[in-house]
Every structure is written in C-alpha cells, then in structure tokens.
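Take one record.
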Amino acid sequence: FSCFSYPFSITPFCILVTLFVTMAASVQSEKSLGFRRIWRIMPIFAIICILSFVCSVLIPRIKTSEEYRRFSGIKDKAFIKDYYEVQPLMNDDASFLFNFGALLRDYGRYNDSSDILRQGAKLSADPMFETLVGRNYEQMKRYEEADSLFSRASRMQPNRIYPVYRQMKLYETMNDNERLKKKAEEVINFIEQEKS
C-alpha cells in the first residue's frame, strides 16, 4: 500500500513509472531500437524527476519546518497567524497540530482548536488530543460530549490518570455528585501500570 498510494500522488514518480511502463512495452527484443533509445534517456528522466521532487516538495517542507521551530515553543497570541501560514505544509505533523490546537485553546478559540486537534488525532494515538478537545467542549458547556471524549481518552491509554482526573473535574463542574464521588475514588485508588 505504501509503495503505491503515497508515491503516485507525487508527479515526478508518476512520470518515472510511466516511462518504465513505456520502456517495458517497447521491448520486443534486446536489439529493439526503441529499447535502446529509452534506456539511454531513462537516467536523464530519473534525475529530472528526483530534482523536481526535491525542489517542489522537500525544500519547501524543510524551510517551513525551520520557520516553525523558531516560534514553536512560544505561547503568544501573535503567533496564531504564523501557525496558519505554515499549516498547509505541516498538516502531517502531529506535534505541530497539537501545539497549534493547544495555542488556540489557550486564547479561547475552542472550535478552531477542536478542528486542529481532530486532525492531529487522525495522525497520533496520543490520548491528549482527545483530552484537549474534551476540555474545549467543557469550556463551551457541552458536557456530555466532553465526558465522552474523556472516557475515550482514558480507554486509549488506561495507564494515564489525567483523562480520569479531567472527567472528575467535569463532574464537579456539572454538580453531579454521584459520578464525582465515583471518579474521585478512581483517582485516589489509581495505580499506574508498569511499562513493559
């Protein structure tokens, strides 16, 4: 799957494969004139395709990553615009999406934060994505959705206490004393599993 899905979304690889198929179709015998011509031209096309890939995909990605590193640790509202500028080339980086979503959350942009964090959750199995979206819902007073996300986060990695703690705090906010008491007992009696 990885050999054919990702490479064929990149134009230089499509051109290269088309040339290989053309070369294979033109081969009737090793003495074939078409075979010799294509075989001589193939290295040139391969080099052009590789250079095209490097120039169109890799170099912009490296520049964008360097630009992101300059402001990645800074939690300031002024950098939200910078995050949006580098987002198109960084949408496949889970840590970028987490930091961006957390920054938006810090400044009360809960819906935007949730959208970014959901993109990150598709790339990572880290339950903190679910937990932060749950906290966004909690701030927007969408308590049942927050409760569902905290539960999902605690099931994703049962070894983490934070989603359970957030769920307990949610019940406290909701004044649901029965569920609050059960969660408080769960937090108090929480035993961290040894990592194997």
